[in-house]
Automatic annotation (TrEMBL):
This is FxsA family protein. It comes from the Bacteria. InterPro entries: FxsA. NCBIfam families: PRK11463.1-2 (NF008528). The keyword Membrane applies. It comes from Nocardioides imazamoxiresistens. Keywords: Membrane, Transmembrane, Transmembrane helix. Pfam families: FxsA. Residues 148-178 are annotated as: Disordered. PANTHER family: UPF0716 PROTEIN FXSA.
Amino acid sequence: MTDQQLPGTDPHRPAPGAVRASRLRALRVTLPLLVGVVVEVAAFLALAELAGVFVALVVVIGASVLGMVLLAREGRRSVRAAVETARAGRAPEGEVAGGVLAVLGCVLLVVPGVVNSVVGLLLLVARPVLARPAWWLLTRRTRRHGVPTGPWDVRPGAADGRDDVVRGEVVDEGDDRR
């Protein structure tokens, strides 16, 4: 026992509540993943029973291939729409929310599984309806983590309240052109 160590404590052992908190965090991640795998297996078995194993495999693999193709196309389309809206001087709220929904739907299609594919297709089809609630949820979550959101102006100088741009040239003090 050293002089600075209290009797009955070991510096190599975790704090009394740390192990329990760590196990709870692991359970919050592991349990939903485990439930998701069980649901996906049950859905695949139900589809295989209903339509046959070959058809179930074609559906799952086809959805993954479709998701990969759509992910590239929808990602480019979403970025292009957001940039065009920002260049027009408007906040690209709907375009960003629609892009997030499109990418999420495509990723769910890529991940093998019947339920993932159905949810991914629903996100892609219902994107126009879900864009506004998704934007609200996204900004609410980002504000909670300290990220500034809200009305913003994309014009140069608009962030500090000025709308004027002074054109000029930076001259180094050691420059001979003065």
